[in-house]
Amino acid sequence: MTNFSVSERVMTPEELESALRGIGAERYHNLHPFHKLLHSGKLRRGQVQAWALNRYYYQSQIPVKDAALIARLPTPELRRAWRTRLVDHDGDAPGTGGIARWLKLVEGVGLDPAYVQSTEGLLPATRFAVDAYVHFVSERSILEGIASSLTELFSPTIIAERVPNMLANYDYITKETLAYFTPRLTQAPRDAEFALSYVKQHATTREQQAAVLAALRFKCDVLWAQLDALYFAYVSPGLIPPGAFVPEDHVQASA
Amino acid sequence: MTNFSVSERVMTPEELESALRGIGAERYHNLHPFHKLLHSGKLRRGQVQAWALNRYYYQSQIPVKDAALIARLPTPELRRAWRTRLVDHDGDAPGTGGIARWLKLVEGVGLDPAYVQSTEGLLPATRFAVDAYVHFVSERSILEGIASSLTELFSPTIIAERVPNMLANYDYITKETLAYFTPRLTQAPRDAEFALSYVKQHATTREQQAAVLAALRFKCDVLWAQLDALYFAYVSPGLIPPGAFVPEDHVQASA
């Protein structure tokens, strides 16, 4: 994070966009083996539960990081534009919004939403990664905070792969369970377009461009590290850290 | 972290100490399989390098978290007592102190200290866990900040196991390479005694006692998560995250 290479010259906005997309092609978490297992139906129910439980914490902190960014944005126009994200995740009324829909998913895979909301069974590595994202957005420049959201450029691809495959491959997963993802297919591109255009317009020095690329790499690390931790605890070697959620069907792989 | 159970009644200072020691007996990272491999000579050189490289980042941030705590301590007496930790880790002159000794270890296992100091090859999960510790000490109560240092109660045991075993089991590791650990055998008990006595004296309500126990659990999680990440990336399944250090002798286990 603190180290990023600075290119020899200032990139054009199009070159910067292309470099950002290149990071996604190399580091976005659709490439992680945990997602390949999740989508292809190869996970036991307890492993899908562990994914839903841990990812809940990420979902729950998205409005926190968005509010931290809004608090630092200088104009009503910018704050208004970013505020749509709060509405998307927190909703307009009880039971609406992305977090509430994620809790439906949690319930659909057989977990008690209150247990998940307590974060008692959370992997510490999930907490550390997600909190790192909130701190990053709270402490770094506005430009870096906005750039770190750009993984949304790549999320429609993974959702388009996830939803039909999970529906086909797990008999206990229904369209209602996966309802979280439907609005994301339009929200994410709208948000990513705004953030990308902001970044292309405001990252005009070599240092700013390097910082923007590093911010997106950092965010890819945040997502990737969560899947590493899931894979380690629940797939192979299957060593669940002390205190974390233990699925009923857990099997420790021979190390 | 935000969730901790509060006991039915206030514990005596001795009961609190015993509960703290119980957490160590269950969760301290001497119990982690990565350490068993490290000490028994079962790691390849590249795996020992990955350990030294990642643990360097932890070492480098210890004075940062200690300074963050000192900045919040209210009296010269307390700040003076805690200042000895800064001296231990940062030294009194170039080349002295714990961080410099850790860089000797890094060199002794065949890594370029400048590369390690750049943190370029660091596992993101290491950064997230260590930064979580710094943030915890900066943001939580002084009592929790002090309690989170109490893993030092348990470190002499692991050092007494580590040093002779690593010397016996790896021919390229010398006493000079492991010089970091020698002063820790006296520093850690002195520091832990101070912190333990502070905590026993100041955690006088059920809520404070619960917070103190949660702080030590949190710190055990910080240490444990670092070993989980090392094991995942470098032992099994051996999936190194994008951008992290790749040892020359790396072998990916069959998943």
Protein topology:
The structure is a homodimer of 255-residue chains.
Chain A: H1 13-27, H2 33-39, H3 45-70, H4 76-90, H5 98-108, H6 113-118, H7 124-139, H8 142-147, H9 155-169, H10 181-202, H11 206-235
Helix pairs in contact in A: 1-11, 3-4, 3-5, 3-7, 3-11, 7-11, 9-10
Explain the overall architecture.
The structure is a homodimer of 255-residue chains. Helices cover 66% and strands 0% of the residues of chain A. The longest helix of chain A has 30 residues. Chain A has one domain: Heme Oxygenase, Chain A (Up-down Bundle), CATH 1.20.910. Chain A is mostly helical and 255 residues long. The interface between A and B is large, with 36 and 36 residues.
